[in-house]
Amino acid sequence: MPAELSDLGAFVAVTRAGGFRGAAKATGGSASGLSEAVRRLETSLGVRLLHRTTRSVATTEAGARLFDRLAPALGEVEAALDVVNRFRDRPAGTLRLNVPVSAVRLVLPGIVPGFLAAYPEICLDIVAEDGFVDVLAAGCDAGIRYEERLEQDMIAIPIGPRRQRFATAASPDYLDRRGRPDHPRALLEHACLRGRFGSGAMTDWEFERDGELVRVEPTGPLIVRVGTATDLAVDAAIAGSGIIHLFEDWLRPFLDSGALEPVLEPWWQEFSGPYLYYPGRRYLPAPLRAFVDFVKAAR
């Protein structure tokens, strides 16, 4: 073979991620190490595979053709090596999942402890982020997302609660001071604690009652990054800073304790629960197959 398998793998990782830093994050390696591997591969083959600038990396025509043939082939190599897992008493290895922060908080706690107890030789590597990502390019085996954000050509199975709601709430003190809204549009006169996605898009607040859908774009004194800084908005709501709109399960402990009071509850919108999704490979890695089977059995 004219090239080392590890160098070929480095080239595929860099091409998928669109750069050395992204590939390093996905593989757990270093950008400099990946750069050296690709340079070594180019020297071995005698052709340039990547165009490099200070801002981006793009494949040459030769690199694009190599990637198209090489990526599926390396996937088959990984599947072939994983076959030996079937001869073990229990599957082993690392399973890397890309999930939203809400799933880390509301879905996985009911699944992970039991799975780890059943498969002690599997290591779960959880990457929590709320942006829309290509799980393969991110170096993950599978992901959890909601139906409207599932990637195409993926297998999806239900995981966690099948019906959820967004709840709107505020502290009793805030509502005593500012009044209790009787319609979603009344929120435009209130201090609302909002979220922004990593893309920069703000989250709209949607409400539904008797077939009437109302979408509002509230304003307020606090904007947080969805997922990673959501707890700050919850704390601010409890302290009386404004009204929050979030997963009901996230707010339920504070609603039950009285720290937060429901607002517009007849208008709370219901939606379908999340899905575990993964590529439709002929052979799934043993840790992923074990997790899929565990999730299906728990339904």
Can I get a quick summary?
The protein is an alpha/beta fold. The chain has helices at residues 5-17, 20-27, 31-45, 61-82, 101-106, 112-118, 172-178, 230-238, 248-257, 286-298; strands at 50-52, 57-59, 93-99, 122-128, 142-145, 154-158, 163-170, 192-196, 205-209, 212-216, 222-225, 243-247, 261-262, 270-272, 275-279.
Structure report:
The chain has helices spanning 5-17, 20-27, 31-45, 61-82, 101-106, 112-118, 172-178, 230-238, 248-257, 286-298, and strands at 50-52, 57-59, 93-99, 122-128, 142-145, 154-158, 163-170, 192-196, 205-209, 212-216, 222-225, 243-247, 261-262, 270-272, 275-279. It has 299 residues and is of the alpha/beta class. It folds into three domains: 5-83, Arc Repressor Mutant, subunit A, CATH 1.10.10; 89-160 and 273-298, Periplasmic binding protein-like II (D-Maltodextrin-Binding Protein, domain 2, 3-Layer(aba) Sandwich); 163-271, D-Maltodextrin-Binding Protein, domain 2 (3-Layer(aba) Sandwich), CATH 3.40.190.290. Strands 7, 8, 11, 12, 13 and 14 form a six-stranded mixed β-sheet that branches. A five-stranded mixed β-sheet has the order 4-3-5-15-6. It has a two-stranded antiparallel ribbon with strand order 1-2. Strand 9 (205-209) and strand 10 (212-216) form a beta hairpin. The termini are far apart. The model has no long low-confidence stretch (mean pLDDT 88).
